[in-house]
């Protein structure tokens, strides 16, 4: 049956930034599809809640509390997956971010930090994971979470947008280097209702304006990203590599404008 192509039975995934939001939704979605998961973030209480959701599906979760801004902590995740579960099939590089800041207040160090956190951490995990994927599973799927801001220009997002654009192109480059046994794809979310969007979504006027500026007339849910990740990770996406899925409600321009007065 075609639905069998979306199963992850017997597979093991590492998901970074998995304590809440997109990472939590992806980890629990993978578990519902049959995978065991290694979930990593800085806050243990958040991870424990996600682990309970994973275990409620009948799958196993390994909680790793770590500061994922540290490349060594990221690198250790691949080994933890193999040590606990004996294999590694899927990696989701979800950790990342950078605060909005006016362009002239964005220093070279700000750019370097954004690149290191969004691209450097992903690369660290890829380097650690690929040999273990090949040795234990023979193949694998890597999914990088970039952003619609890496494609659409927006005020005050120079560091974040540039880093996410770099991650998208890193995805394409890594796919060429690692094919045919390792597939590398990315998801570019639009405005998704997670804690990162609370300050905006909690304002009825701002939320209404964002919805009006989105062709599908709504903001995204974490499950919108989790289902896209499941497609890319599973056999259903086995003929895709080097692609960036734009899961953003059809945006062709940013749906949140920062006023000049705020710059």
Automatic annotation (TrEMBL):
SUPFAM superfamilies: NAD(P)-binding Rossmann-fold domains. Gene3D superfamilies: NAD(P)-binding Rossmann-like Domain. The keyword Transferase does not apply. Pfam families: adh_short_C2 (PF13561). Coiled coil: none annotated. PROSITE patterns: ADH_SHORT. Residues 11-190 form the Ketoreductase domain. Keywords: Oxidoreductase. It comes from the Bacteria. The keyword ATP-binding does not apply. NCBIfam families: PRK07231.1, PRK07814.1. Belongs to the short-chain dehydrogenases/reductases (SDR) family. This is Short chain dehydrogenase/reductase. It comes from Nocardia rhizosphaerihabitans.
């Amino acid at each position: 049956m075609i639905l069998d192509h979306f199963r992850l039975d017997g597979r093991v995934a590492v998901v970074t930034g998995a304590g809440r939001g997109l990472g939590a939704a992806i980890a629990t979605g993978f578990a519902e599809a049959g995978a065991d998961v290694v979930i990593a973030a800085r806050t243990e209480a958040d991870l424990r809640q996600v682990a309970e959701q994973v275990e409620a599906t009948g799958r196993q979760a390994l909680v790793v509390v770590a500061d994922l801004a540290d490349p060594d902590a990221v690198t250790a995740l691949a080994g933890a997956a193999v040590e606990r579960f004996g294999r590694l099939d899927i990696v989701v590089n979800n950790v990342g971010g950078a605060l909005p800041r006016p362009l002239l207040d964005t220093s070279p160090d700000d750019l370097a930090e954004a690149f290191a956190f969004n691209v450097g951490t992903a690369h660290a995990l890829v380097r650690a994971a690929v040999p273990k994927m090949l040795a234990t599973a023979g193949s694998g799927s890597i999914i990088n979470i970039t952003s619609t801001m890496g494609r659409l220009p927006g005020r005050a997002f120079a560091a974040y947008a540039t880093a996410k654009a770099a991650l998208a192109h890193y995805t394409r480059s890594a796919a060429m280097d690692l094919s045919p046994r390792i597939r590398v794809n990315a998801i570019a979310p639009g405005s998704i209702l997670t804690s990162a969007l609370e300050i905006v979504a909690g304002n009825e006027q701002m939320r209404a304006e964002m919805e009006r500026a989105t062709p599908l007339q709504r903001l995204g849910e974490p499950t919108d990203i989790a289902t896209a990740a499941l497609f890319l990770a599973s056999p259903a996406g086995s003929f895709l590599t080097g692609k960036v899925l734009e899961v953003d409600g059809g945006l062709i321009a940013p749906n949140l404008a920062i006023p000049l007065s705020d710059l």
